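Private note to self, pasted from the team thread so I don't lose it. Backbone tokens:
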């Protein structure tokens, strides 16, 4: 794990840190080969330079965001923004369903939209893989 991600997690309240640590551990375990770093002030994992998943502290809890999540066909992920991202939110570590999270992470490696080149394509996303 990138040292700055540990610093991010350590900066959270006890409850939020537990959520962040759990998410980080699961992502690292199941999204093998991914690069991770702080990107736009939040922990994000990338495959071949393309953002895949990340989490961030919001007012009401911790948000887990999948950049291509709207294409996963998962009812527990809610659309976020005007592209293909989807999210879920946690207020307690016990809410994290590790089997469900593993499934989402597996899908995130297989179902990707090309966010890395979105600027070059003037806001148009193309499906990868």
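Design output:
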């Amino acid at each position: 794990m990138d040292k700055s991600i540990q610093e991010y997690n350590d900066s959270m309240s006890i409850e939020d840190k537990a959520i962040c640590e759990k998410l980080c551990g699961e992502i690292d375990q199941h999204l093998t080969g991914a690069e991770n770093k702080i990107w736009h002030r939040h922990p994000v994992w990338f495959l071949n330079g393309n953002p895949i998943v990340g989490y961030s502290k919001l007012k009401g809890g911790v948000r887990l965001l999948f950049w291509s999540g709207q294409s996963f066909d998962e009812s527990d992920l809610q659309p976020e923004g005007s592209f293909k991202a989807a999210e879920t939110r946690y207020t307690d570590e016990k809410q994290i369903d590790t089997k469900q999270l593993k499934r989402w992470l597996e899908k995130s490696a297989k179902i990707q939209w090309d966010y890395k080149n979105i600027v070059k394509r003037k806001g148009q996303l193309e499906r990868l893989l």
